[in-house]
Amino acid sequence: MIPNFKAHPWHGVSAGEDAPNVVNVFVEIVPSDTIKYEVDKETGFLKVDRPQKFSNIIPALYGFVPRTYCDTAVMNLAIERGATDVSMGDHDPLDICVLSSHNIHAGGLLMEAIPIGGFKMIDGGEADDKIVAVMIGDHAFGHFRDISELPEAEVKRLMHYFLTYKNLPDEPAKCRIQEVYGAEHAKKVIQASQEDYQNNYGG
């Protein structure tokens, strides 16, 4: 008899056979969510992180790349690209948002996506990169291969979310975006996060 078993979405799933060109993504949040969910690192179950306090709703599917971790190698990439206010990675799996025209109703699922760029975000001195990707086969976004090909309004919409989702209206900004980068550097960030994962968790 085969025992019931569910792989841990962070540790028990690969980043993808063709990573960093095509990566597996574990989706935690979808655009219709008014609560921020995240994977519980110990159990692998989705848990409630916090209700969204304001109207800034995630404009894309959002989750992480399995078997990645943001530590020294990711931090060093930020320093190499000119960040002077970063002292560590954020000690979480690598964040990724996936553009798709399809209405996916809930997170807790895996999909394949093609990285096309990202935002080098610095959050309280921590390197907290946000990879931007497109869902394979999506009829509206699936053909893009670099963030430079996206409409400017789409890039700004994503940037605005990440720059404001943690802030109360009367608070100073808690994070900033060092740069918007294309597919080539996004792949370097993914590889650096895989290196950090191996150095911290092995395998």
Automatic annotation (TrEMBL):
One example GO MF annotation: inorganic diphosphate phosphatase activity
Needed cofactors: Mg(2+)
UniProt keyword NADP, yes or no: no
Assigned keywords, A-Z: Hydrolase, Magnesium, Metal-binding
GO biological process: phosphate-containing compound metabolic process
Domain of life: Bacteria
SUPFAM superfamilies, A to Z: Inorganic pyrophosphatase
Top-level class of the enzyme under EC nomenclature: hydrolase
Record's GO cellular component terms: cytoplasm
Enzyme Commission code: 3.6.1.1
Protein name: inorganic diphosphatase
Source species: Chryseobacterium hagamense
